[in-house]
Write a structure and sequence with these properties.
Layout: E1 23-32, E2 35-45, E3 50-54, H1 61-69, E4 76-81, E5 84-85, E6 96-99, H2 111-121, H3 126-139, H4 155-167, E7 173-177, H5 185-202, E8 205-210, H6 213-219, E9 222-227, E10 230-235, H7 237-242, H8 247-252, E11 257-266, E12 270-275, E13 280-285, E14 295-300, E15 306-308, E16 318-329, E17 333-340, E18 345-351, E19 366-371, E20 377-379
Parallel strand pairs: 3-8, 3-9, 6-7, 7-8
Antiparallel strand pairs: 1-2, 1-4, 4-5, 9-10, 11-12, 11-14, 12-13, 14-20, 15-19, 16-17, 16-19, 17-18
């Protein structure tokens, strides 16, 4: 398999104003009758990225992928790959390949014949087909299974056959529609890293559609969060999780607690937010975009909150008092729902660092919740 001459290695080309996008989606809209599946999407993806389209069912992510593949025609807009407009080209003339959720491998063909199928259809010589199939088998570590039929393989191995079949055609862009959805949790986690390793070696631009937040966070260089046909936010996994730009993104990615309040006071390094849901003021870091008297949401992730039976001495932290309403042990961490006096429920997650502790917080305990102002996110 031919590796890319310029691999995507710890670069952030989207931050370089001189870097040219490899794939450009310009004002793409797709309507089915009165229903708008994709709504004026503009997106730039750079060479060698492993880019994820993330969203719930019906958000338009798969429709957008099918437009890129040529299986759907946009109602409006166009898109380019490497500077060439692809909008009107049929699927077989586009430098893309697609890996489907169902894998779509032929049950009557061996592994090697499945991988060779597209190459033979393209009219490549027997010698070239043989070389590419051997490269593909080696890349996905299935050389010893070349003669087997799909029913003799595990789900993860079938997934790798489909991946090899797509890659041996040397596409400029590989489109993957929920590629790991059919795998169990452990195999899915293992395969995520295999997929990342293959993409890293080849340097091919991958665009992955998924509804799985953890999968998108693990795989991608950047993520586009979609909702109702629109892109709500684009950013690295860290940007999306730590700095959500909307309430939708904050709620969709992971768990989060949101307290509604009004900016009461602005200080040199912080703001004070009056909040009825906590029955006390909250402190957040200074933000030039918000002003005294403005209504905002103060958001905090469950893992950023420290939970203790002891009242803290440090008054620079945000501190809430409540009662443990629910408690769940999940092995590596414990999850608590803590009810405040106001009736507001706050979710907290704590790592289980010790095998057993007689001081572990449990149901009906009175606890104190604290967090640093720097860990809050402001939502307008």
């Amino acid at each position: 398999m031919k590796p890319s001459e310029e691999k995507y290695i710890d670069k952030q080309p989207w931050l370089d104003k001189h870097e040219k996008p490899f794939l450009e989606i310009r004002g793409v809209t797709k309507k089915f009758g009165d229903f708008t599946a994709v709504d004026n999407v503009n997106l730039e993806i750079y060479k060698g990225e492993l880019f994820c389209l993330l969203g719930g069912s019906g958000c338009g992510k798969s429709t957008l992928l099918r437009i890129l593949a040529g299986f759907e025609t946009p109602t409006e807009g166009n898109f380019l790959i490497d500077g060439v407009d692809m909008t009107e080209l049929p699927p077989y003339e586009r430098p893309v390949n697609m890996m489907f959720q169902s894998y779509a491998i032929f049950p009557h063909m061996s592994v090697e014949k499945n991988i060779a199928y597209g190459l033979k259809r393209d009219g490549l010589s027997k010698a070239e087909v043989k070389i590419r199939v051997e490269e593909g088998l080696e890349l996905v570590q299935l050389s010893q299974f070349a003669k087997r039929k799909p029913h003799q393989l595990s789900g993860g191995q079938q997934q790798r056959v489909a991946l090899a079949r797509a890659l041996v055609k040397y596409p400029k862009v590989l489109l993957l529609d929920e590629p790991l959805a059919a795998l169990d949790k452990k195999l899915r986690e293992k395969t995520q890293f295999e997929l990342m390793d293959i993409q890293y070696k080849l340097g091919i631009t991958f665009i992955v559609v998924t509804h799985d937040q953890e999968e998108a966070m693990t795989l991608s260089s950047r993520i586009a969060v979609m909702d109702q046909g629109k892109i709500r936010q684009i950013g690295t996994p860290t940007d999306i999780y730590e700095y959500p730009q909307s309430r939708f993104t904050a709620n969709f990615i992971g768990s989060i607690n949101i307290f509604e309040g009004v900016v009461k006071e602005s200080r040199s390094e912080s703001h004070v937010v009056q909040c009825e849901e906590t029955r006390c003021d909250l402190i957040i870091d200074r933000d030039s975009s918000i002003h005294t008297g403005e209504s905002i949401g103060v958001a905090i992730r469950p893992e950023k909150i420290h939970l203790s039976r002891e009242e803290p001495d440090n008054k620079d932290f945000n501190t809430l008092k409540g009662k443990v309403l629910d408690f769940g042990y999940i092995g590596n961490l414990s999850v608590y729902n803590v009810k405040l006096d106001s009736g507001k429920t706050v979710k907290v997650s704590s790592p289980n660092q010790n095998r057993y502790s007689k001081h572990r917080v449990t149901w009906d305990d009175i606890v104190y919740l604290t967090w640093e102002p720097a860990n809050t996110v402001v939502l307008l």
